[in-house]
Amino acid sequence: MVGTGTDDRRRWASRDPSGTLPPAIELAGVRKHFGDVQAVRGIDLRVEPGEVVAFLGPNGAGKTTTIDMVLGLSDPSAGRVSVYGMSPREAVRRGLVSAVMQSGGLLKDLTVAETVAYTAHLFPSSRPAEEVMARAGITEIAGRLVGKCSGGEQQRLRFAMALLPDPLLLLLDEPTQGMDVEGRRSFWAAIRHDADVGRTIVFATHYLEEADAYADRVVLVRRGEIVADGTASQVKALASGRTVRATLTGPDEAALRSIAGVDRVEVRGSSVVVHCADSDAVARYLLTETAAKDLEVSALGLEEAFVALTGDPDSTDAAGPIRSGVGR
What we know:
By secondary structure, the chain is α/β, with parallel strands linked by helices. The protein has two domains: 5-236, 3-Layer(aba) Sandwich (Rossmann fold); 240-299, 2-Layer Sandwich (Alpha-Beta Plaits). Helices cover 34% and strands 26% of the residues. The protein contains twelve helices and 13 strands. The strands form three sheets. A six-stranded mixed sheet has the order 5-6-7-3-8-9. It has a four-stranded antiparallel sheet with strand order 11-12-10-13. Helix 5 packs across helix 6 and helix 9 crosses helix 12 (302-310). The chain is globular, with a radius of gyration of 23 Å. It starts with a helix and ends in an 18-residue tail after the last helix.
Protein backbone atom coordinates (compact mmCIF):
# COMPACT_ATOMS: atom_id res chain seq x y z
CA MET A 1 0.00 0.00 0.00
CA VAL A 2 1.29 3.45 -0.88
CA GLY A 3 2.44 5.42 2.15
CA THR A 4 0.33 8.29 3.41
CA GLY A 5 1.39 11.90 3.01
CA THR A 6 2.30 12.04 6.72
CA ASP A 7 4.49 8.91 6.45
CA ASP A 8 6.24 10.34 3.40
CA ARG A 9 6.91 13.67 5.10
CA ARG A 10 8.45 11.91 8.11
CA ARG A 11 10.66 9.81 5.85
CA TRP A 12 11.84 12.85 3.92
CA ALA A 13 12.42 14.89 7.08
CA SER A 14 14.68 12.11 8.40
CA ARG A 15 16.90 12.56 5.34
CA ASP A 16 17.38 16.25 6.10
CA PRO A 17 17.30 16.73 9.91
CA SER A 18 18.57 20.31 9.59
CA GLY A 19 15.77 21.29 7.22
CA THR A 20 18.30 23.27 5.18
CA LEU A 21 19.02 21.26 2.05
CA PRO A 22 21.28 23.03 -0.45
CA PRO A 23 19.93 23.68 -3.96
CA ALA A 24 18.79 20.52 -5.70
CA ILE A 25 20.59 21.63 -8.86
CA GLU A 26 23.03 24.48 -9.33
CA LEU A 27 24.70 25.28 -12.65
CA ALA A 28 27.11 28.22 -12.79
CA GLY A 29 28.50 29.39 -16.12
CA VAL A 30 28.15 25.88 -17.56
CA ARG A 31 29.42 25.34 -21.09
CA LYS A 32 29.77 22.15 -23.09
CA HIS A 33 31.32 21.77 -26.51
CA PHE A 34 31.96 18.82 -28.76
CA GLY A 35 34.76 19.95 -31.03
CA ASP A 36 33.47 23.03 -32.80
CA VAL A 37 29.87 22.39 -31.73
CA GLN A 38 28.78 24.55 -28.78
CA ALA A 39 25.96 22.48 -27.24
CA VAL A 40 25.65 24.56 -24.05
CA ARG A 41 26.76 28.19 -24.11
CA GLY A 42 26.82 29.41 -20.52
CA ILE A 43 23.86 28.26 -18.44
CA ASP A 44 23.21 29.59 -14.94
CA LEU A 45 20.40 27.72 -13.23
CA ARG A 46 19.34 27.10 -9.63
CA VAL A 47 16.56 24.65 -8.75
CA GLU A 48 15.36 24.59 -5.15
CA PRO A 49 14.31 21.41 -3.28
CA GLY A 50 10.66 20.53 -3.91
CA GLU A 51 10.30 22.50 -7.14
CA VAL A 52 8.63 21.03 -10.23
CA VAL A 53 10.49 22.48 -13.20
CA ALA A 54 9.71 22.02 -16.90
CA PHE A 55 12.94 22.19 -18.92
CA LEU A 56 11.83 22.91 -22.47
CA GLY A 57 13.37 23.68 -25.82
CA PRO A 58 13.39 22.58 -29.46
CA ASN A 59 15.51 19.66 -30.69
CA GLY A 60 19.17 20.58 -30.51
CA ALA A 61 18.65 23.26 -27.85
CA GLY A 62 21.01 21.59 -25.36
CA LYS A 63 18.45 19.99 -23.02
CA THR A 64 19.83 16.44 -23.17
CA THR A 65 23.42 17.64 -22.87
CA THR A 66 22.50 19.64 -19.77
CA ILE A 67 20.62 16.73 -18.20
CA ASP A 68 23.59 14.42 -18.92
CA MET A 69 25.84 16.78 -16.94
CA VAL A 70 23.37 16.88 -14.03
CA LEU A 71 23.39 13.07 -14.03
CA GLY A 72 27.19 12.98 -14.09
CA LEU A 73 27.23 11.21 -17.46
CA SER A 74 29.46 13.94 -18.88
CA ASP A 75 31.53 16.80 -17.49
CA PRO A 76 31.15 20.47 -18.43
CA SER A 77 33.81 22.03 -20.63
CA ALA A 78 33.62 25.05 -18.34
CA GLY A 79 31.63 26.09 -15.29
CA ARG A 80 30.32 24.14 -12.30
CA VAL A 81 27.50 21.64 -11.77
CA SER A 82 26.40 20.56 -8.30
CA VAL A 83 23.51 18.42 -7.05
CA TYR A 84 22.52 18.94 -3.40
CA GLY A 85 25.90 20.58 -2.82
CA MET A 86 28.00 17.71 -4.18
CA SER A 87 29.22 16.46 -7.53
CA PRO A 88 26.57 14.82 -9.72
CA ARG A 89 28.36 11.46 -9.61
CA GLU A 90 28.48 11.52 -5.81
CA ALA A 91 24.77 12.40 -5.63
CA VAL A 92 23.93 9.52 -7.97
CA ARG A 93 26.18 7.15 -5.99
CA ARG A 94 24.28 8.03 -2.82
CA GLY A 95 20.94 7.29 -4.48
CA LEU A 96 19.81 10.91 -4.35
CA VAL A 97 19.10 11.11 -8.08
CA SER A 98 17.02 8.99 -10.45
CA ALA A 99 16.08 9.46 -14.09
CA VAL A 100 13.24 8.26 -16.30
CA MET A 101 14.33 8.23 -19.92
CA GLN A 102 12.28 7.68 -23.08
CA SER A 103 13.70 4.33 -24.09
CA GLY A 104 16.14 1.57 -23.21
CA GLY A 105 16.97 -0.10 -19.92
CA LEU A 106 14.31 -2.83 -20.00
CA LEU A 107 14.67 -6.60 -20.50
CA LYS A 108 11.71 -7.73 -22.58
CA ASP A 109 11.73 -11.36 -21.33
CA LEU A 110 11.22 -10.46 -17.66
CA THR A 111 7.86 -9.67 -16.11
CA VAL A 112 7.09 -6.25 -14.73
CA ALA A 113 7.42 -7.50 -11.13
CA GLU A 114 10.67 -9.33 -11.88
CA THR A 115 12.11 -6.16 -13.43
CA VAL A 116 11.29 -4.08 -10.35
CA ALA A 117 12.61 -6.77 -7.98
CA TYR A 118 15.84 -7.14 -9.96
CA THR A 119 16.41 -3.39 -10.02
CA ALA A 120 15.75 -3.12 -6.27
CA HIS A 121 18.74 -5.40 -5.63
CA LEU A 122 21.03 -2.83 -7.30
CA PHE A 123 20.58 -0.36 -4.42
CA PRO A 124 21.91 -0.62 -0.84
CA SER A 125 18.37 0.18 0.32
CA SER A 126 15.18 0.71 -1.61
CA ARG A 127 11.47 1.26 -1.21
CA PRO A 128 9.31 -1.91 -1.28
CA ALA A 129 8.60 -3.14 -4.81
CA GLU A 130 4.85 -3.28 -4.10
CA GLU A 131 4.88 0.37 -3.03
CA VAL A 132 6.62 1.75 -6.11
CA MET A 133 4.49 -0.36 -8.46
CA ALA A 134 1.36 0.97 -6.78
CA ARG A 135 2.68 4.54 -7.01
CA ALA A 136 3.37 4.04 -10.73
CA GLY A 137 0.00 2.39 -11.37
CA ILE A 138 1.37 -0.94 -12.64
CA THR A 139 0.26 -3.36 -9.91
CA GLU A 140 -2.36 -4.91 -12.18
CA ILE A 141 0.22 -5.77 -14.85
CA ALA A 142 2.87 -7.12 -12.45
CA GLY A 143 2.83 -10.56 -14.10
CA ARG A 144 2.97 -9.30 -17.67
CA LEU A 145 6.12 -9.69 -19.75
CA VAL A 146 7.79 -6.34 -20.37
CA GLY A 147 7.86 -7.10 -24.10
CA LYS A 148 4.06 -7.39 -24.05
CA CYS A 149 3.58 -4.00 -22.36
CA SER A 150 2.52 -0.94 -24.30
CA GLY A 151 4.83 2.05 -24.61
CA GLY A 152 2.92 3.87 -21.88
CA GLU A 153 3.08 0.86 -19.54
CA GLN A 154 6.82 0.55 -20.10
CA GLN A 155 7.23 4.22 -19.27
CA ARG A 156 5.31 3.74 -16.01
CA LEU A 157 7.59 0.77 -15.26
CA ARG A 158 10.62 3.04 -15.70
CA PHE A 159 8.99 5.47 -13.28
CA ALA A 160 8.56 2.71 -10.69
CA MET A 161 12.21 1.70 -11.11
CA ALA A 162 13.31 5.31 -10.63
CA LEU A 163 11.37 5.53 -7.36
CA LEU A 164 13.11 2.51 -5.79
CA PRO A 165 16.03 4.44 -4.21
CA ASP A 166 13.58 7.09 -2.96
CA PRO A 167 15.55 9.87 -4.72
CA LEU A 168 15.53 13.49 -3.68
CA LEU A 169 15.80 14.52 -7.34
CA LEU A 170 13.90 12.93 -10.21
CA LEU A 171 14.76 13.79 -13.83
CA LEU A 172 12.11 12.89 -16.41
CA ASP A 173 12.57 12.84 -20.19
CA GLU A 174 9.20 12.70 -21.98
CA PRO A 175 7.71 10.84 -18.99
CA THR A 176 4.17 10.39 -20.36
CA GLN A 177 5.14 9.41 -23.91
CA GLY A 178 2.74 6.68 -25.04
CA MET A 179 0.40 6.99 -22.06
CA ASP A 180 -3.34 7.40 -22.54
CA VAL A 181 -5.20 10.35 -21.02
CA GLU A 182 -6.06 8.53 -17.78
CA GLY A 183 -2.50 7.24 -17.44
CA ARG A 184 -1.09 10.74 -17.86
CA ARG A 185 -3.51 12.14 -15.28
CA SER A 186 -2.60 9.44 -12.74
CA PHE A 187 1.10 9.92 -13.41
CA TRP A 188 0.97 13.66 -12.73
CA ALA A 189 -1.08 13.12 -9.60
CA ALA A 190 1.73 10.89 -8.30
CA ILE A 191 4.34 13.48 -9.29
CA ARG A 192 2.48 16.27 -7.52
CA HIS A 193 2.23 14.12 -4.37
CA ASP A 194 5.99 13.53 -4.44
CA ALA A 195 6.70 17.24 -4.90
CA ASP A 196 4.40 18.09 -1.98
CA VAL A 197 6.52 15.95 0.37
CA GLY A 198 9.83 17.36 -0.85
CA ARG A 199 10.99 15.55 -3.99
CA THR A 200 12.41 17.79 -6.71
CA ILE A 201 11.16 17.12 -10.23
CA VAL A 202 12.76 18.33 -13.47
CA PHE A 203 11.08 17.18 -16.67
CA ALA A 204 11.32 17.66 -20.42
CA THR A 205 8.19 17.15 -22.50
CA HIS A 206 6.65 17.87 -25.87
CA TYR A 207 3.22 18.02 -24.22
CA LEU A 208 3.34 21.73 -23.46
CA GLU A 209 -0.07 21.62 -21.79
CA GLU A 210 1.56 19.41 -19.11
CA ALA A 211 4.23 22.02 -18.46
CA ASP A 212 1.53 24.67 -18.25
CA ALA A 213 -0.63 22.64 -15.87
CA TYR A 214 1.89 20.94 -13.59
CA ALA A 215 5.18 22.88 -13.48
CA ASP A 216 5.88 25.44 -10.77
CA ARG A 217 8.44 26.92 -13.12
CA VAL A 218 9.22 26.80 -16.84
CA VAL A 219 12.78 27.12 -18.20
CA LEU A 220 13.11 27.60 -21.96
CA VAL A 221 16.42 26.96 -23.69
CA ARG A 222 17.47 27.85 -27.22
CA ARG A 223 20.83 27.12 -28.82
CA GLY A 224 22.42 26.20 -25.50
CA GLU A 225 21.21 29.27 -23.58
CA ILE A 226 18.30 29.99 -21.25
CA VAL A 227 15.94 32.45 -22.95
CA ALA A 228 13.14 32.48 -20.36
CA ASP A 229 12.75 31.34 -16.75
CA GLY A 230 9.66 31.85 -14.63
CA THR A 231 6.13 30.60 -14.00
CA ALA A 232 4.11 29.54 -17.03
CA SER A 233 2.16 32.79 -16.80
CA GLN A 234 5.34 34.86 -16.72
CA VAL A 235 6.81 33.03 -19.71
CA LYS A 236 3.60 33.46 -21.70
CA ALA A 237 3.63 37.17 -20.90
CA LEU A 238 7.12 37.50 -22.41
CA ALA A 239 5.84 36.63 -25.87
CA SER A 240 4.07 39.78 -26.93
CA GLY A 241 0.85 39.49 -28.89
CA ARG A 242 -2.82 38.60 -28.61
CA THR A 243 -5.32 36.45 -30.46
CA VAL A 244 -8.67 37.88 -31.51
CA ARG A 245 -11.41 35.41 -32.42
CA ALA A 246 -14.83 36.23 -33.81
CA THR A 247 -17.74 34.63 -35.60
CA LEU A 248 -17.75 36.13 -39.09
CA THR A 249 -18.63 34.64 -42.45
CA GLY A 250 -16.53 35.69 -45.43
CA PRO A 251 -14.18 38.15 -43.72
CA ASP A 252 -12.11 40.57 -45.79
CA GLU A 253 -8.74 38.99 -45.10
CA ALA A 254 -6.82 41.67 -46.98
CA ALA A 255 -8.40 44.41 -44.87
CA LEU A 256 -7.56 42.56 -41.66
CA ARG A 257 -3.97 42.04 -42.73
CA SER A 258 -3.64 45.73 -43.48
CA ILE A 259 -4.29 46.65 -39.83
CA ALA A 260 -1.04 47.68 -38.11
CA GLY A 261 0.40 44.93 -35.94
CA VAL A 262 -1.48 42.01 -37.53
CA ASP A 263 0.84 39.01 -37.97
CA ARG A 264 -1.51 36.34 -39.28
CA VAL A 265 -5.16 35.83 -40.23
CA GLU A 266 -6.81 32.40 -40.18
CA VAL A 267 -10.30 31.60 -41.43
CA ARG A 268 -11.86 28.53 -39.82
CA GLY A 269 -15.32 27.92 -41.22
CA SER A 270 -17.55 30.65 -39.82
CA SER A 271 -14.81 31.98 -37.54
CA VAL A 272 -11.83 34.24 -38.06
CA VAL A 273 -8.71 34.19 -35.88
CA VAL A 274 -6.34 37.16 -35.98
CA HIS A 275 -2.88 37.04 -34.39
CA CYS A 276 -1.73 40.56 -33.66
CA ALA A 277 0.19 42.99 -31.48
CA ASP A 278 -2.66 45.52 -31.20
CA SER A 279 -5.82 43.63 -30.27
CA ASP A 280 -7.72 46.88 -29.66
CA ALA A 281 -7.32 47.97 -33.30
CA VAL A 282 -8.46 44.59 -34.59
CA ALA A 283 -11.45 44.47 -32.22
CA ARG A 284 -12.44 48.01 -33.17
CA TYR A 285 -12.38 47.14 -36.88
CA LEU A 286 -14.36 43.93 -36.43
CA LEU A 287 -17.04 45.55 -34.27
CA THR A 288 -17.49 48.74 -36.32
CA GLU A 289 -16.76 47.67 -39.90
CA THR A 290 -18.08 44.11 -40.05
CA ALA A 291 -20.93 41.94 -38.78
CA ALA A 292 -18.61 40.04 -36.42
CA LYS A 293 -20.03 38.72 -33.14
CA ASP A 294 -18.90 36.56 -30.21
CA LEU A 295 -15.57 38.37 -30.14
CA GLU A 296 -12.86 36.99 -27.82
CA VAL A 297 -9.42 38.42 -27.04
CA SER A 298 -6.82 36.17 -25.42
CA ALA A 299 -3.11 36.18 -24.64
CA LEU A 300 -0.73 33.71 -26.24
CA GLY A 301 -0.72 30.19 -24.86
CA LEU A 302 2.45 28.43 -23.72
CA GLU A 303 2.80 26.64 -27.06
CA GLU A 304 2.72 29.93 -28.96
CA ALA A 305 5.13 31.50 -26.47
CA PHE A 306 7.42 28.47 -26.86
CA VAL A 307 7.53 28.96 -30.64
CA ALA A 308 8.09 32.70 -30.31
CA LEU A 309 10.83 32.47 -27.69
CA THR A 310 12.73 29.41 -28.91
CA GLY A 311 12.40 29.83 -32.68
CA ASP A 312 15.21 30.82 -35.03
CA PRO A 313 16.37 34.24 -33.82
CA ASP A 314 17.19 35.17 -37.43
CA SER A 315 13.59 34.56 -38.47
CA THR A 316 11.16 37.46 -38.66
CA ASP A 317 8.58 35.28 -36.90
CA ALA A 318 10.71 34.68 -33.82
CA ALA A 319 11.15 36.81 -30.77
CA GLY A 320 14.62 38.04 -29.93
CA PRO A 321 16.57 36.85 -26.89
CA ILE A 322 14.75 37.30 -23.61
CA ARG A 323 16.66 37.92 -20.37
CA SER A 324 16.48 34.85 -18.17
CA GLY A 325 15.37 34.87 -14.55
CA VAL A 326 11.82 36.12 -14.92
CA GLY A 327 10.48 36.45 -11.41
CA ARG A 328 13.67 34.90 -10.04
